[in-house]
């Protein structure tokens, strides 16, 4: 049990966070609205919904879009997000994370075509490939585990989820502790990625 608790602490470890001011974040979020919507419910499938996402997880992602001393590139290298966060200080990032975490995520809907395959992967994984069930970390309802750093995924756009799984699979995205997501995505086919992303979009 002690080893499990330690592992979760390591996985969830991130930059120190004193806590943001959601009211201040509401004002600062005006520049985020064009892509993510005023309340974090993006209408564009390629931009993620961030409403209701765990505060600590949002803060971690925002800090990793920034260049820090000694880095040659951000931990999460994104041409759209990097210029957005560059002028922001740490308190700004905490305030934004606090604001969006307190918004209510709007549910999505899944397409029927590959829904059964997506649900099977989410609920049971793919034992033959050594792929664990997605719900083991992200929970059955997709709400994630804030204390461990596992994000909420329910209702997320399928296009965005597909893009992130592909990025983990190719190694383009590598800000997952202990290569957790990269090791999973590497074992998934295009069809399996699309299926689980579709299932997630309708999960709530």
Automatic annotation (TrEMBL):
Keywords: Electron transport, Heme, Iron, Metal-binding, Periplasm, Signal, Transport
Superkingdom of the organism of origin: Bacteria
UniProt-annotated binding residues for heme c 1: 32, 35-36, 81
UniProt-listed InterPro entries: Cyt_c-like_dom, Cyt_c-like_dom_sf, Cyt_C_IC, Cytochrome_c4-like, Cytochrome_c_Oxidase_Subunit
SUPFAM superfamilies: Cytochrome c (SSF46626)
One of the Pfam families matching this protein, by short name: Cytochrom_C
Subcellular location: Periplasm
Leader peptide range in chain numbering: 1-18
Any one GO molecular-function label of the UniProt entry: electron transfer activity
GO cellular component, one term: periplasmic space
Residue span, Cytochrome c domain: 20-104, 113-204
The protein, known as: Cytochrome c4
């Amino acid at each position: 049990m002690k080893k499990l608790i330690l592992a979760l602490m390591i996985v969830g470890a991130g930059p120190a966070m004193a806590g943001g001011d959601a009211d201040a974040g509401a004002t600062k979020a005006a520049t985020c609205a064009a892509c993510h919507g005023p309340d974090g419910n993006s209408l564009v499938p390629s931009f993620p919904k961030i409403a209701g996402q765990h505060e600590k997880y949002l803060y971690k992602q925002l800090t990793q879009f920034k260049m820090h001393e000694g880095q040659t590139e951000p931990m999460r290298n994104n041409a759209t997000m990097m210029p957005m966060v560059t002028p922001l200080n740490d308190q700004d990032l905490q305030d934004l994370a606090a604001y969006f975490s307190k918004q209510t995520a709007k549910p999505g809907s899944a397409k029927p075509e590959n829904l059964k395959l997506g649900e099977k992967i989410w609920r049971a994984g793919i034992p033959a490939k050594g792929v664990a069930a997605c719900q083991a970390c992200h929970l059955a309802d997709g709400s994630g585990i804030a204390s461990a750093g596992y994000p909420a995924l329910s209702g997320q756009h399928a296009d965005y989820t597909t893009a992130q799984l592909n990025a983990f699979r190719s190694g383009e995205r590598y800000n997952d502790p202990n290569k957790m997501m990269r090791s999973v995505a590497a074992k998934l086919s295009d069809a399996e990625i699309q299926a689980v992303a579709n299932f997630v979009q309708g999960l709530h």
